[in-house]
Predict the structure.
Amino acid sequence: MFQLIRFISFLSIISLILLCSSCKDEKVPKKYWPRYAHEAYYYKLIETGLNTTALGRDWVMMADSVMKMPVKIELPYEEVLFIDPTEAFAEAYLFEAQQGQEIEVKIEYEGPDSIEIFIDLFRSQNEIGVTPLKVASAGKDDRRLEFMARKKAFYLLRLQPELLRGGKCRVVIRSLASMEFPVEGYGKNAIQSFFGDPRDGGKREHHGVDIFAPRHTAVIAPIDGTVSSVGENRLGGHVVWMYNAKLRMHIYFAHLETQDVEERKTIKAGTKIGTVGNSGNARTTSPHLHFGIYPTGGVADPYYFLVNTDTTTTKPVNSTKLLGNWVQPTIQIEEENSPVPVKLLATVGDKYRVMFMNGRKDMISAQAFSVILKSQFADLRKDIPGSFQDSSISE
Ligand SMILES: [Zn+2]
């Protein structure tokens, strides 16, 4: 679906270029404007001719090249990032998310300007040379993005601001449970049998999680949807099925004591479905809810849909004053032959995230620096690729 949208956007860009070049006064009707903020801005660059300036070209190139050199992080993650207004800036972060986790991105701008920051999320394709697939974009002027990971994969988050604006911003990326816990008043510790556990002496695998709670504890819908079936079967006893059309997921509740919903009813997350029991093949065990998730054409481990892993970020503690400057570490840094200057990009925990002159990025302890200001590195400019070259939009 997203590929189709991208293809359509690509076609629109081509037709826009043709339109602009064929008759200069023609305005493109609003309904044909690009759908994503990042692409819309690219249009604006084309419309104003800025895409042919050095800075405009750098911006377009950076959008692509930054994805090939992402910062590898683990969630939850927080940093204070400096956006340099004098260059075409972008940053990309690579992290893993589990199927069912909600990836949450929040950007807090702390600078003086009003600034547009484009937030786009891609799924890495795990194959060399295959372009990452865009899966979500924040709306125009939105500083927040939420997306449920449909599969366990590496995801790439790209931040790119408009040109000539800058300042500090706080970037927070977390992965959260995407659904409410289906047994009211209980949580992670009540899950005592997991997805994939052997059943029937190893003949089959457990296609869900078992959540233990006293008989008659309320079972609730973890997400909005429609009740597709209320019935009874040999293994599950009293069961309820519901369906979420947006996610195309069927949800299964089994071993219920009571069933408290009607078929075909539309229900909201939090609606009582029934109560915990031990009907079906659970009659010899203590009462528990068997909970299963079936995305169309498969089955999923419900664990990360329901359980928050550690979501508390480590706050950056270092001064942000020198972000954006080239500084001289006082100690030799791993992988480098001698102390070399680095650019301070962001503060993370008790470290600085830095870039070396060859473009490599890494995290370095704050104690490793004695500061030399950017101006003293003016003579280094010619050796620093890309971002540090003088750019001008007046050419
Ligand atoms: Zn079970």
Notes: Confidence is low (pLDDT under 50) at residues 16-23, 371-395. DSSP finds four helices and 25 strands in the chain. The first helix runs from residue 2 to 22.
